[in-house]
Amino acid sequence: MPSILIVGYGSHTKRRILPALDSISELDNIFITSRSFPDDISKKYQYLNKEEIIKNKMIFDAVIISSYPSAHLENFEYFKNCSSLFLIEKPITNNLLYLDDDNFYNYFQDYQVKECLMYFHHPVYDEFLKIIRDNKIESVEAFLTIPHIEKNNHRYSKNLGGSSILDQGVYPISLILENFEIVNDSINHQIFFEDSYEIDTGGTLFCKTNEGTQINLKWGIGYEYSNNVKIISGKSYFEFPMFFSKPENHISKYNVKNSGKMKTYEIGNHNQFNNMYKDIIINNMIFDYQKYQNLKSRYDFIGKLLND
To answer: Which of 1, 7, 42, 9 is nearest to 25 (CA)?
Structure first.
């Protein structure tokens, strides 16, 4: 059975990562390490002190890093001799300048370092691909916005890697960059800030593709909840609700409106974290969005939006 080390034991690990791993029959050898011993850890997982891992030269089939974004690559550096496969929660880092470092490029040559964007592993994404492949697309709209949360949450801390464009924005931006070629001169964007927060709290992006498709993106924290993708092709309108993030037991569907008639297609309940870990850890699948050049292009694009 593959052995998995999870670095970090926050709410994301508890709510998303562990339930997904638990539901994969091929995985039952799960270890956890964190900054301090968690009192609520289940007996079915083994807690390891990080110094103990290094001292004993422990090797794992995969290491999942789920820490604060500012600590992701620091944790990778610490544990890099413990595996050849590293799955790092998005954003892979908040230090975008580091992505230009030769060491970062070398990591991708020497290790399998993969940023995790789970929505690429859900069947609803496959339906999206079929639609844009089989139709002349006039416009794509992709929104991911969430209400404000507790102000002491790490998402609001610049030092810990908080940033709306790196947290929410990376989803719609990655969707477009993976599937369309953007005309750079067409880009019109805004990055939003609120006086009482030290991070960017949202943004919009309007642009065109080389085939003339109009793109409209919006992301942010402190807004009414939205999580959808809409496509227009001639007289056809396609709507994907809950496209990027899905709550537990969610039944995915999408709507097609054609000549005034609406039809709903049900895709079913799929745990996209479960799919992602199966794809990468069990089936050793390779995805374009995780390749070095794609990741580098994604964060170069985001960096340009932040700095312009």
So the answer is: 1
Question: What structural domains and CATH numbers belong to the chain?
Answer: 3-116 (3.40.50.720), 123-269 (3.30.360.10)
Q: Which two tokens stand for residue 175?
A: 């969707």
Classify residue 70 by its DSSP letter: G
User: What pLDDT digit, counting tens, does each position of 145-200 carry?
Assistant: 999 999 999 999 999 999 999 999 999 999 999 999 999 999 999 999 999 999 99
| The two structure tokens encoding residue 15 | 């709510």
- A 10 A CB-CB count for 23 gives 13
81: its two tokens:
């001799």
Our measurement of the distance from residue 242's CA atom to the centroid of its chain's CA atoms, rounded to an integer in Å, reads 14
Model's pTM, two decimal places?
Answer: 0.96
**How many other C-beta atoms are found inside a 10 Å radius of the C-beta of residue 78?**
16
Residues 6+ apart with CB under 8 A from 272: 118, 119, 121, 122, 246
Per the model's pLDDT, the better-predicted residue between 41 and 271 turns out to be 271
Rounded to whole angstroms, the Cα distance separating 306 from 222 reads 19
Length of the chain: 308
